[in-house]
Write a structure and sequence with these properties.
InterPro entries: RAVE2/Rogdi (IPR028241). This is Protein rogdi homolog. It is found in: Cytoplasmic vesicle, Secretory vesicle, Synaptic vesicle. The protein is α+β, with helices and mostly antiparallel strands and 249 residues long. 35% of the residues lie in helices and 28% in strands. It has one domain. Helix 2 (73-90) runs antiparallel to helix 3.
Length: 249
Amino acid sequence: QEASHRFALPASSPGGAIKQENFVLSTSGTDQVKGVLTLQGDALCQADINLKMPRNNQLLHFAFREDKQWKLQQIQDARNHVSQAIYLLMNRDVNYQFKTGSEVLKLMDAVMLQLSRARNRLTTPATLTLPEIASSGLTKMFTPALPPDILVNFYINLNKLCLTVYQLHVLQPSTTKNFKPSGGSILHNPGAMFEFGNQRYEVSHVHKVECVVPWLNDALVFFTVSLQLCQQLKDKISVFSSYWNYRPY
């Protein structure tokens, strides 16, 4: 219940809308990328990003279009798994009596599966290829439009909201004899190559900035506590079952 409450953030108004939270993106040792993100539940409703180009120190500014929001599928999925775990526990009559230990063990296994999936959605970001990032709807969220040599990706990693910015350079036909497209990854390193729109690119610079989302941290703690409680109940039932099976009559 405590974990589920973290995904249903308190409303900022009597109308019941989920409150908006602003987070400053930063990283130690560099100011190449700075930004402010506005998170509303599972949606990024605003993003304001400044990017300093290393070639000429040109400063670029991008922001979400006013009519656009970006859904964070990881948060949405985690919330759904928590809701399913609660449903498994609550969908019996209030006076229901469990008849066997194995019945309880089966329920605990089902609940633990949903809790583990919820936690894994936050701790394990999706691996994407660079063409997948390039063709993502996220690239069309910004005004002014992102230049063709810039890619961006947002994702959740544990309790952090992360932004990765990839700067690219076009590979000339004379340099593509050693072309090796990179596969899927959470974070692509400089030197990674890919083909998109009949053009070949190489990643020249990678910038990753992030911010801690406190309520995601709370949720991860509650997932761990919940899984421990489920396991403790399973262990107790196993002990009592052994005692029941072996005690003399």
